[in-house]
C-alpha cells in the first residue's frame, strides 16, 4: 500500500466529481498566477490597491455569484462554490471575503429578494465584476444582535428616507451598490443604495491588524432619499439578511479549510528545509507531533466542508449545520495557523511566509458572520430546543 499523500491524506479528491476538480484547479491556477504574487504587498499596504481590477479578474474567472442561477451567473453546485472559496482563502481571507460579500451577500440578497428589474440591472454586472456590491447589516452598536439595529427607513410619500450608520462593511467604500438593512414600521427591510446617492457617504476603516488585504468601511446615511423601487420587495424581516449570511457562512466553512491547508503546507515545507541541531526540524518528535495535529485539523476541516456541501446540494443543510462548520473549521484553522506560525520561528512573523497573515486574518473570520459564541448558541438551540441568545 502506498503512503498517503500529505496534501490529500484521506484521498478526499476521490470524492469530488471531475467537474468539481476542474473548477478547483482553475481557481487554484488563477490564484497562483494573479493573486498570490501580490497579496502580501496588499496586506502590508492595508488595502486592495485596484479593487476594480480584482473584481474584473474574479468576474472573468466566474466565481462571483457562481452558485446562483441565471443573470450571467455560473449556477454551479454548492460544493464547487465551496472549493473555489477554499482556494481563494488559501491565498488570503480578504480575497475570499471579497467573493463572499459580492456573491453570497449582496448578489444573493438581490437574486433572492429583489424585483426582476433589480436583478436585471445589477446581477449581470456584478457577476462580471463590472459592479461591486456590499452588504450593510452591522452597526456601531449592533453586531451579534442585528435585530437591535438603529438605522431607520421611513416613508415620505412614495419615497423612502434612510438615516443611520453601518459599520465594518466589507467593500463599503468601493461598492457601486450597497444592500442596506433598515428598520421600518413593518419590520426590517432591505434597500439598494447606489454610490453617489445624496446623503450617502463612506469612510474607510484604518488601523486594522487583520484582513488588511480587504477594504472595510463605515456607511453613513443622512436623509438618504430613495424611490419606492429601491426596496427589495421579497425581503421581510430579519430572516432575509440572516438567510444571506447563512450562504456566506457556508463559504467560510470551506474558506477556513483553505487557510488551514495553506498554513499546514507552509509548515511542512519549512520543517523539511530548516536545519537546527544538525537535522531538519521535521526530524524532531515535537515537530512531528505538531505536524500530525495540523494534518488532523486540515483533513477534519475538509471532510466537514465537503459533508455540509453535499447536504446543501441535496437541499438538506440546516442553518445549524453551517454553524457547526463555521465553528469547527475556523477554530481548526486558528489552531493550525498558530502552530505553523511557531514552527517558522522568526521567519514566521514576516510577510515572506503566509502563516502570520493567515493567523491574524482568522481573527476577523472568527468574528464576522457570527462569532464562535453565536454559533455555539445556535448549536445549543439545535441540540436542546432552547434558545439561549438573550
Ligand atoms: P459583539 O456582538 O459586540 O460581540 C462582542 C463579544 O460578545 C463577542 O465575543 C461575542 O461572541 C460576545 N457575545 C455577543 N452576544 C453574545 C451572547 N448572546 N452570548 C455570549 N456571548 C455573546 N458586517 C456587515 O454587516 N457586513 C460586512 O461586510 C462586514 N464585514 C466585516 C469585516 C471585518 C473585517 C470585520 C471584523 C467585521 C465585519 N462585519 C461586517 C461585522 C461583523 O459581522 C460583526 O463584527 C460581528 O457580527 C460581531 O459583532 P460585534 O463586532 O459588534 O461584536
From TrEMBL:
Protein name as catalogued: glutaryl-CoA dehydrogenase (ETF)
Cofactor: FAD
Taxonomic lineage of the native organism: Bacteria, Bacillati, Actinomycetota, Actinomycetes, Streptosporangiales
Record EC number: 1.3.8.6
Domain Acyl-CoA oxidase/dehydrogenase middle intervals: 134-224
Domain spans labelled Acyl-CoA dehydrogenase/oxidase C-terminal: 236-383
Family statement drawn from the similarity comment of this UniProt entry: Belongs to the acyl-CoA dehydrogenase family.
Domain (Acyl-CoA dehydrogenase/oxidase N-terminal): residue spans on this chain: 17-130
InterPro entries the record matches: Acyl-CoA_DH_CS, Acyl-CoA_Oxase/DH_mid-dom, Acyl-CoA_Oxase/DH_mid-dom_sf, AcylCo_DH-like_C, AcylCo_DH/oxidase_C, AcylCoA_DH/ox_N, AcylCoA_DH/ox_N_sf, AcylCoA_DH/oxidase_NM_dom_sf
Organism, scientific name: Microtetraspora fusca
Keywords from the named record: FAD, Flavoprotein, Oxidoreductase, Transit peptide
Known pathway: Amino-acid metabolism; lysine degradation; Amino-acid metabolism; tryptophan metabolism
Reaction(s) the record says it catalyses: glutaryl-CoA + oxidized [electron-transfer flavoprotein] + 2 H(+) = (2E)-butenoyl-CoA + reduced [electron-transfer flavoprotein] + CO2
